[in-house]
Amino acid sequence: MGNAKEHLFSVGELARKASVTVRTLQYYDKIGLLKSMINEGGRRMYTQDDILKLQQIFS
Asked: Which GO terms label this protein's molecular function in UniProt (predicted)?
């Protein structure tokens, strides 16, 4: 996380923004297309850069 003020998205938030299912994001994470960060509570978190990566995956 480069910028401390950077907004992080939960897997559900990212799924809604990208119009994909949570399961799709979990699969992409599993095969290494998209790597999440794990917060202190154990939740997967994504950055704005991950939205850009998803756009590249879909194009």
From this structure: DNA binding; DNA-binding transcription factor activity
